[in-house]
Design brief:
Largest sheet: 4 strands, antiparallel
CATH architecture: Sandwich
Strand content: 25-35%
Number of strands: 7
Distance between the termini: 87 Å
Structural class: alpha+beta
Number of helices: 1
Strand order of the largest sheet: 1-2-7-6
Shape: flat
CATH class: Mainly Beta
């Protein structure tokens, strides 16, 4: 093992890069896809897809290790909130771990909906760790087609 000289400037440069990245992510209109289920800040943040499908808004969320009984979905006029908890099956002493990458604990993700939806007709399914929520658009949110007559 070689000895490396400590440099305070290297630590300042690393801190500058972290702050720069934080501002870039904050001001992006659509943040880059989160590649980690567990964020750097220590919060569980599920990855999502939101898309339009013929009069419906579909939301898919990755929830690996979550049981369907531990998922709570709340729909308001313009937001969808997914809350839940990943519970640990067994207790292992901290000193017995060689590696520890699986995330446990509560999570919450609030998604701004692109249009007003009919929450009474919403449906959710959960299969293979993927939660799919289908939200029908309200009638006034659906596009209306008007034919133009040519004379």
């Amino acid at each position: 093992m070689s000895i490396v000289k400590w440099s305070p400037f290297k630590e300042l440069e690393d801190m500058r890069k972290d702050i720069e990245r934080m501002f870039e992510e904050f001001f992006e209109p659509f943040p880059r896809r989160r590649r980690r289920w567990w964020s750097r800040e220590g919060m569980v943040v599920p990855n999502i897809d939101v898309y339009d499908k013929k009069g419906e808004v579909v939301v898919k969320a990755e929830l690996p290790g979550v049981e369907k009984d531990n998922i709570d979905i709340t729909i308001t006029k313009d937001t969808l909130t997914i809350k839940g908890e990943i519970k640990k099956d067994e207790e292992v002493k901290e000193e017995d771990y060689y590696a520890r990458e699986i995330s446990y604990g509560s999570f919450a993700r609030t998604i701004a909906l692109p249009v007003e939806v009919d929450s009474e007709k919403a449906k959710a399914t959960f299969k293979n760790g993927i939660l799919e929520i289908v939200l029908p658009k309200k009638e006034e949110a659906k596009p209306k087609e008007i034919k133009v007559e040519v004379k």
